[in-house]
């Protein structure tokens, strides 16, 4: 009986360690996505999304209708991830002024009106940084120029 309890405890410890490892990897992936978006590194962003797909394959997520919904949710969790200040990759792309990254993220479901630190949207960050091409791109994708940040200013 004692041996069975020890084995059960060991399995529980292994499961907990695996969960901690998975969460660390997920956090690293989010950080890499946010940094790649700011830098406009499309190859890195695509690589991260490919990693998510490979994890789904490894975990046996089917490619039927229900499985594809789960796979899409996993992709969106990375595309719409947030840093500690609630900034999304699209907000980082706006702050970095990368039009290519903005297009990449919006085409994959990124919200051009997400609100991050201090109530700032991707459009606000692009305008604040003086990235006029990024501003134009975000406006074409439906970013709302009337959204007020916490400082009382709009992107305009």
TrEMBL record:
Q: Which intervals of the chain are annotated as region Disordered?
A: 1-29
Mark the ANK repeats by their residue spans. Answer: 118-150
Kindly state which keywords UniProt assigns to this record, in alphabetical order. ANK repeat, Repeat
What the entry lists under Pfam families is as follows: Ank_2
Q: Where is the composition biased (Basic and acidic residues)?
A: 8-28
Superkingdom, natural source: Eukaryota
The protein's name is Uncharacterized protein
Q: Which organism is it from?
A: Ciona intestinalis (Transparent sea squirt)
State the organism's lineage: Eukaryota, Metazoa, Chordata, Tunicata, Ascidiacea
């Amino acid at each position: 009986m004692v041996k069975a309890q020890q084995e059960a405890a060991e399995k529980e410890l292994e499961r907990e360690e695996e969960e901690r490892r998975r969460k660390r990897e997920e956090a690293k992936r989010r950080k890499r996505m946010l940094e790649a978006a700011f830098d406009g590194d499309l190859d890195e962003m695509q690589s991260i999304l490919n990693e998510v797909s490979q994890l789904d394959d490894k975990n046996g997520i089917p490619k039927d209708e229900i499985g594809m919904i789960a796979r899409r949710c996993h992709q969106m969790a990375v595309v719409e991830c947030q840093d500690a200040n609630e900034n999304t990759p699209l907000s980082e792309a706006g702050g970095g002024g990368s039009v290519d990254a903005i297009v990449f993220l919006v085409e994959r479901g990124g919200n051009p009106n997400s609100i991050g630190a201090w109530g700032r949207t991707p459009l606000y960050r692009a305008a604040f940084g003086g990235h006029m091409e990024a501003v134009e791109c975000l406006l074409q994708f439906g970013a709302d120029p009337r959204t007020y940040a916490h400082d009382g200013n709009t992107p305009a």
